[in-house]
Every structure is written in structure tokens, then in C-alpha cells.
Amino acid sequence: MPDISTNTGILSALASRQGGASIELDRITKLYPGQTAPAVEDFSMRIEPGELVMFVGPSGCGKTTTMKMINRIIEPTSGSIRIDGNDVLSLDANELRRHIGYVIQQIGLFPHFTIAENIGTVPRLLGWSKQRIKERVEELLETVQLDPGVFANRYPRQLSGGQQQRVGVARALAADPPVMLMDEPFGATDPITRERLQAEFLRLQAEIGKTIIFVTHDFEEAIRMGDRIAVLSERSRIEQFDTPANILKNPANDYVSSFIGEGAALKRLALIPSGDAPLGPVDASAPASTVASTDSLREALDHLVFTGAPRINVTEGDRAVGSLDYAAISSVLGAEAPRSAARTAGTAAAEGRP
């Protein structure tokens, strides 16, 4: 039986951890009773503190099973899992889950609880005081851009799908966990709401710096959001684990290429801020519409195509700092795209910049 005092010490360390924590999975395997082939086989990975890692792969490949073994909703058959070097398989599973944020596609809000009560669920289980819970609920509602005075006492049925999803994220963050697991959290929303939620979450992650595993079947979502992407095939075999830019530029094999699909160059441009391109001088004859230096080169290319102009000016704040043409945009594809670009673009979208 695991030592109780040791468990308490590890969980206390997790609870007090600021930002994110490292996650190590070492040769994890899951074999269900009565099955001859494992659902997950010999899976190993290290995720750095504060990193947002996307698991992408077809339905049934084992990506959700792999993720659920981290918080032990599913118990592994063999292997080890460590968070900040601590063996999570030695801990009480229920207590462990209270220190790991978990967001699912169906959201899972309690329909007869108010929004404030939903968000405060885990803090109540952890024994927080009513005042501390109230303050944390208000802080999180503001963080996910829902007015506490308007939404705290409403019920889930009184919120839109996108608002409910934001509450689900707030609930997962309530006890300030160092690790968050997200299972296709935006999959049930319409395309416009989904894009907005992605942008808001990237803005939020830039502030909180949690370690996040995010399961999706949408490669476009993986490219936009991930620091690194794990492209998984049957039994959670890792076909490639790399930055979005490197996967787009150098897919490991035909299987990875099939996920990228057509338009790899345009997808790479969506990861690179306009300010990272070689800028020419400000062009007084360029169209009045401009792109910010934090907007992606894909957006800059869209502006050029839409206006038909040979150049477009790039701005920082209210000041033009240079200009871009087709040749400058094309030249960037030969260079390595920065890993932070997707978040830069996401932050720009969240702030409502064009």
C-alpha cells in the first residue's frame, strides 16, 4: 500500500506548483481484458513544463486512452507515469484527479448547479473556505471573459455552447492545477465559435503557462494551437513528435503527409508573424489596409491577393515599420518558422485585431 504521508507530500507539491509541470510517460501500455492487441503499446514521451502538446490521429488510434492514463481515469497495464518526477501510479487516484484539470468535448457541467457552483466543485472537495472559493470563481470568470455579476448565478442551460465551454475551462483551472488534459474540448462547437475559443484559450495559456495535453482529430487545430504535435497511428504509435513548423516542412513519412494534406506552404505561413519576414521600406502608395507585425504571413498574403497591390505595409501599433511583397513572403518558407508564432496569431485574434 502506498505511504499516505508520501502521497500527501506529493499532492501538496502539485497543489502549490506555479505554472506547469513536466510529464513523463515511460513505456505505457494498456491491454483491456479479453483483447489480444493492446489499445496503447509501449508509449514513451516527455512533455516540458508549460508546453502545450497536441495529440492528433484518427478515431480509435488510442490518443484519448493515452491521455486518460495520466489522470488514471484509465489505469495502465504497465509502464510508469511521472509528473515533476513523482510517480503518479503510487498516489490515490481520486486525489490525483483533483490536482489535474480535465476538459471534455461534452463539457460535463452539472445542470442543477449554478455556474459558480460548477467552477467551485474541486475547491470544495479540497476543503477551501467559502470566501476563497468565491474569490477564485470571480477571478476565473473574468479570466475567461464572462462577467461574474451576470453569469455566476446562472445555470448551464442559460448559456450558449461557447459560454458553457469557457465555464468548463474555468472549472478545470479552479484549483490552479499544473497539468491540464483536454479531450477535443471545442469539437462540438460551430466553426466560428470554435475559432474564437481557440484564440481565447491561446491568450489564456500565454498568461497561465500550464502543461497541457490536448487531444484533437483536427490537424488544422493542432497546427494553430500546439507547441509540439504528436501525430499518432494505431495503438498510439508516434509517427512524428515535433513543432508544427517542422512537421509541415519535413513530414516524417507518408502517413504524416496524409494528415497535412494540400496547402502545406499556406499552413506554414499561418505560423509565421509578418514581422519575422524581411521587410522592405514603408510604401506610401500601398493600400490603406495594413497588417500588424504580429499577424501571420498567411493574413498578409490574403491582403495582397484581395487588394491586388504589389506591396502592403506592416504596422506596430499606429506606426508603419515596413512593407511586404510576394517575394518577401515566399523567401520565408525556406527558413524555420518560430514555435511561438501560432500563439502570437491566436493572441491577435483574441484581441480582435484584423
Automatic annotation (TrEMBL):
Q: Which Gene3D superfamilies match?
A: P-loop containing nucleotide triphosphate hydrolases
Q: Where is the ABC transporter domain?
A: 23-260
Instruction: Give the EC number(s) listed in the UniProt record.
Output: 7.6.2.9
What single Pfam family name could you report for this chain, choosing any that match?
Answer: ABC_tran
Q: SUPFAM superfamilies, from UniProt?
A: P-loop containing nucleoside triphosphate hydrolases (SSF52540)
Alphabetical keyword list: ATP-binding, Nucleotide-binding, Transport
Q: Which GO terms describe its molecular function?
A: ABC-type quaternary ammonium compound transporting activity; ATP binding; ATP hydrolysis activity
* Entry superkingdom: Bacteria
Q: Which family does it belong to?
A: Belongs to the ABC transporter superfamily.
Q: What is this protein called?
A: ABC-type quaternary amine transporter
Which organism is this protein's natural source?
Answer: Leucobacter ruminantium
The taxonomic lineage of its organism, from the top, reads:
Bacteria, Bacillati, Actinomycetota, Actinomycetes, Micrococcales
